[in-house]
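User: I want to check something. If I give you two sequences, will you return the structure for each one separately, not as a complex?

Assistant: Yes, each is folded on its own. Here is the first sequence with its structure:
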Amino acid sequence: MDLLSASELLGGERFDRAWMLVEAADAGSGGSLGVSRDLYVPCGVAAVDIDVFLIGVTGESSSVRWIAGQEVERFDSFGEFFEEMISYNEETLEELRLDPWLGAG
């Protein structure tokens, strides 16, 4: 999963792919995700999977939503989202280090 660059936030292949994935998930949920281009902008998209991060763009919400076919998680702020992703990556790294085939174990 990669965050989009400033220029990618204005459009482009990865931005379009993110919206395609989100809109397909929303259609598959009967619209229950309630995502709209007026309310959210993709801020991250997986290169080979269906994960997308959306950030709220209204004055009321800067929450980040993790969508992967359905809503996986919602974060109250970008800061909370970023801290969780760092923690997740640290846990994954520790698991890899303990793996006898991949780590030093």
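And separately, the second sequence with its own structure:
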Amino acid sequence: MASSLPISLLLHTLLLFAVPISSYPLGSICKQAKNPNFCYNLLQPHANANLQDLDQFVIDATAASAAKTSSKIQSLLPQTSDPNLKVVYTFCSNYYSAALGALAAAREKLRARAFRDVKSAADTVSGDADACRKAFAMAPSQPIAIAGDNNEFELLSNVFVVVSGKL
């Protein structure tokens, strides 16, 4: 019976290192974000989560933002009479569709623990948000009804890039 004590102690020690029981410091993540305050406010309710759980949360939040904005674009397109603005919304619609596809892929890759692919998806999503914002220049004299939504999406996608880079 005396020999079982060291074996159980060894098993307990191995389990301690195998199970992620501690959270990742948010300050270490958010200092790399474009807007550290936005990042911190987003992640603070999940401060005790491990990196995979944080990334899942950020993917979900980014996807919700993208879906909301994509839906808004679809409702604006038929109402828009300005041809330049219609082009902007059409481009952004395509970027948001691509981003939603990349976010769906990121969910699957995260489950499969293919972290490099998750980071690649994050980069794609961030590029799509940036490309939509750059498309606004095609209608410089028009107010862009999705500008605020796209800004939020850009901030979320940036946090997604940062968190995914830590995996």
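Because they were folded independently, the notes below concern the second chain alone. Residues 77 and 90 are 7 Å apart (CA to CA). Residues 1-5, 7-22 have pLDDT under 50 and may be disordered.
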